[in-house]
Amino acid sequence: MATIKPDFDTRTYRRAKLSGLLQALDLFEIKLEGSQKFVRKKPSFAKVLKIVHDVIIDYRGLNEWTSINLLAIEIAKINPDFNPRIFGYQNIQEIIKAIDSKYFELDADKTRIKLLSIKRKINATILPCIFPNFLVQWLNNSQFFYF
After folding, report:
1. Residue 83 burial (CB < 10 Å; 0-12/13-18/19+)?
2. Which domain of life does the protein's organism represent (predicted)?
């Protein structure tokens, strides 16, 4: 990091160490083994939104609603290696129900879902980034690193 941005100082972000800054951001998985901390970028939820969006467009009914169970089955067929546990959910239905309401609408029973606006771009950045872009680029250069 010192070679990429030598004037970077974690104290600017009210953190004494880089590890404290990374933990505060909640954008990374941090694993502690002995005295070493391993850091990996959390998977992007934008990919999930794109998959859900595409399946809803393919399987929605005349009234624009799609059954969440049908949606989960189709997502599992299209992406058999999709693992909802990496996002912190037990199954695809839980992920769908947790999606922010600015993209999709759930019915009162939470059994059906529809798009709020088909023309809305789903693949836009979802989470606002509160730290410099060079730090993101530096972290993206490796799958796992430790400090």
Report:
1. exposed
2. Bacteria
